[in-house]
Amino acid sequence: MNNIQYLSQFQLMNSLSPEDLLEMDQLTSITVFPKNSLIQTPQTFREGFYFVKKGKLRLYKLSAEGKQFTLDILGEGNVFGELNGLSFGTRDLFIETIGECDICLLDQERAADFLLHHPRFMLSLMEVLGRRIAELTSLAHQLALGDLHHRILHVLLRLAGLFGSGEQDGYVTIGLPLTHQQVAHLAGASREAVSGALQELARQGLIRTGFKSVAVNRDALHNEAWN
Fold it and tell me: How many CA atoms, within 13 angstroms, populate the side-chain half-sphere of residue 162?
């Protein structure tokens, strides 16, 4: 798939004509990052919009004690970054690749000029931003108010919704390598506590676990999460 075909896959690009897509293609640059690359820290933040062409990214913060808390995982077709106050909230975050990633950059100067001449694209970008904020606000509310059991349920449901692939015997596999420590980072808990909670969920038949893999019974998990 060439860059123009790739860019056209983004929902927010629906407002752009083929000529606009060609122009954007000429304005963007692509960088390939190896697995486990730290592509941004709060100190190395650079304004612009970044499009995830291939791979997955983990967005996280560090506590004063140095503990990691994962705020989100972005997959192919997602956008992040900030430009002149239009922000996806990633300025103060660490961003790390989960696997090899191809990232397209529309840098500050080029993005500002493109948005100025394509107001419908600006509106599409704001709609995507609004949905992202609503999703993260909802998840933050659930994580803040729930006990560990329910926090893990909501984390697994979100991951299944974003990266679920296939279904076998009612179970959907989360399509990314997932260790107990990574679930702990997402749920804001210790690895030991999360390991015990995951074992209990598996015993109840709500999930199935393997080496760095989790499959969830989404319907049963949803009923458990909201009861």
Answer: 19
Question: How far apart are alpha carbons 121 and 118 in whole angstroms?
Answer: 5
Which residue's structure tokens are 């349920």? 153
Element (H, E) at 87: strand 86-87
User: Which residue from 172, 181, 173, 21 is spatially nearest to 104, judged by alpha carbons?
Assistant: 21
pLDDT of 6 higher than 70: no
Q: 159-197, pLDDT tens digit by residue?
A: 998 889 878 888 999 988 888 999 998 888 889 999 999
- What is the radius of gyration, based on Cα positions, of the chain? 19
Is the C-alpha dihedral spanning 168, 169, 170, 174 positive or negative? negative
User: Of the CATH numbers 2.60.120.10, 1.25.40.890, 1.10.340.30, 1.10.150.530, which one belongs to the domain with range 3-142?
Assistant: 2.60.120.10
Q: Which helix (H) or strand (E) holds 92?
A: none
| 113-128: burial string, b at 16+ Cβ within 10 Å, e else | ebbeebeebbebbeee
Residue 105: pLDDT over 60: yes
Taking only the tens place, the pLDDT of each residue in 44-59 is 999 888 888 889 999 9
Domain boundaries, the chain: 3-142, 147-221
The tokens for 148 are: 């560990």
User: Distance of CA 210 to CAs 24, 174, 187, 215, Å?
Assistant: 42, 11, 19, 9
DSSP 8-class letter at 208: E
